[in-house]
Design a protein that fits this description.
The protein is an alpha+beta fold and about 290 residues long. The chain has 2 domains: about 35 residues, no CATH class; about 260 residues, no CATH class. It is built from 6 helices and 20 strands. Strand 9 and strand 10 form a beta hairpin. The radius of gyration is 26 Å and the shape is globular. About 40% of the residues are buried.
Length: about 290
């Protein structure tokens, strides 16, 4: 018995010596258990990439941040800059497709759970005989969605008719398309008809483009690919190139937005335009909808 107590006393004394000498501390246990945990990113990150045929503007919005991302619809059309300023937005990007002749949407938009832009109300779309066979797929194109799932905010990209998860509520949605990732859905969403050689977006040609993506962590990526002036060939990116770009930036899901002369990204008071005129000047165009960050 004395031998056992002697061993216990020796162990206690040894620990006290190590503690007093600073060789071992109780804090080291908790620090060793948490040292591998990465800090949670909560601030937006804006950067520019200079590629041979395009200038790429990238805004990353952490899902854990307090920033709200929501669509804004203009009744008569306005520039991204003006709409962003009216909403006191920190950042914005152009949104869904529309008909410039009547300023009516060709993409679904939902805000606070209600449809605020419905392509089925666009008579130039639904009465166009050249589009009759495509309407079912046009009305089921990809859209960016913001869910509220209990206490958790969740972003996704889904087809318009995809079912909302039962534990979630659909707060906002902005339609455009096609889906870029995990697969480029040009034909499924009626942007391309290879049989009739129809390509509504000039998908294989380089142009100004914009897109939204979602990373594995759930962060949002707003991306605009701008043309470069003074090049002897077409600049910007094609849709397959845009899909590859989004993947290289970390997106697992991605969707094309209205591009060309609509392509614009706004950040902290500055506007960056995608389309370059024949004179080499940036083009600013009125759009129907945008996504804002505030």
């Amino acid at each position: 018995m004395r031998k056992i107590f002697g061993q216990i006393n020796f162990t206690i004394i040894s620990l006290l010596i190590l503690l007093s000498a600073g060789i071992f501390s109780l804090k080291s246990l908790s620090s060793s258990q948490t040292k591998n945990l990465a800090p949670v990113e909560t601030e937006m990150q804006f950067r520019q990439l200079d590629l041979p045929d395009s200038l790429i503007y990238v805004l990353l919005i952490p899902v854990e941040s307090q920033y709200q991302v929501t669509p804004v619809v203009s009744s008569k059309g306005d520039t991204v800059r003006n709409l962003a300023n009216q909403e006191n937005a920190i950042a914005a990007i152009n949104g869904g497709f529309f008909d410039p002749h009547n300023q009516k949407t060709t993409s679904y938009i939902i805000k606070n759970g209600e449809i605020v832009a419905n392509p089925q109300n666009n008579e130039r779309l639904i009465n166009n005989p050249n589009l009759t066979t495509y309407l079912e797929r046009i009305f089921n194109r990809s859209e960016w969605r913001r869910y509220q799932c209990g206490e958790t905010r969740h972003y996704t990209i889904a087809l318009r008719q995809e079912i909302i998860p039962p534990e979630c509520q659909l707060i906002d949605a902005l339609g455009a398309g096609p889906s870029l990732l995990p697969k480029l859905n040009l034909e499924q969403e009626a942007f391309v008809d290879y049989t009739n050689k129809r390509d509504a977006l000039g998908s294989d040609r380089r142009n100004a483009r914009s897109a939204i993506g979602i990373t594995k962590k759930g962060d949002l990526l707003l991306v605009m690919a701008a043309q470069k002036p003074n090049l002897s060939h077409a600049s910007g990116v094609s849709l397959p190139e845009l899909a590859n770009l989004m993947q290289s930036l970390g997106a697992e899901k991605a969707m094309n937005l209205d591009g060309g002369s609509s392509a614009t990204i706004y950040y902290q008071g500055n506007s960056y335009y995608g389309k370059i005129s024949a004179a080499g000047e940036p083009v600013e165009r009125a759009v129907k909808s945008i996504l804002i960050v505030r």
